[in-house]
Automatic annotation (TrEMBL):
Gene3D superfamilies: 3.40.50.360. It holds the Pfam family Flavodoxin_2. It comes from Slackia equolifaciens. This is ACP phosphodiesterase. Transmembrane segments: none annotated. Residues 4-190 form the Flavodoxin-like fold domain. SUPFAM superfamilies: Flavoproteins. It comes from the Bacteria.
Amino acid sequence: MADNILYVDACVNRSTSRTERLAQALLARLKAQGDANVTTLILEDAPIAPLSGDDVNRRFELAHAGAFDDDLFSMAKQMSQADTMVIAAPYWDLSFPSKLKVYLEHLCAQGVTFRYSEQGVPTSLCRGKRLYYVTTSGGYVGDLDFGYQQVKALFTLFFGFERAECFRAEGLDIITNDEEAIMAEALAGIESAQLD
């Protein structure tokens, strides 16, 4: 059975994106491992907007009625059917570009991607098991990648993904650094990674 891979591209400067370059190398590796169907969602082109109060209320009412055919649930339904998620997002302001935050809000659809148990614990309704997060930064991030930490927590705690891994290249815009050497090292890391 084919592995359904959902690739979410949150890169803003796509034509020159170093994050996109790393993500494409990762996707090539994943495709080379066997039968895979890759669906690409480019957030810059996606017709999504932050959820308004009216949207949230409407989504709650629709979910309560079990009416999940509305467009408000389309991205959540798409993600819930992915076996593997690849998210590419440059490091911006301690996290990621705002369209990725909006996308994550759309994924948190009770009754589609998760439900609450009687004890109030989120229980996954997704089939996905693997999340790969790809990012690049001009400076050094270290432990301050709150974007990856947020995505990892959401996908493991709410959506039931068993594996979350981050591939990154840091320090790319520091004048004394060799940008291409850093990228080559990150690409080599993707090439040698154990992907299962």
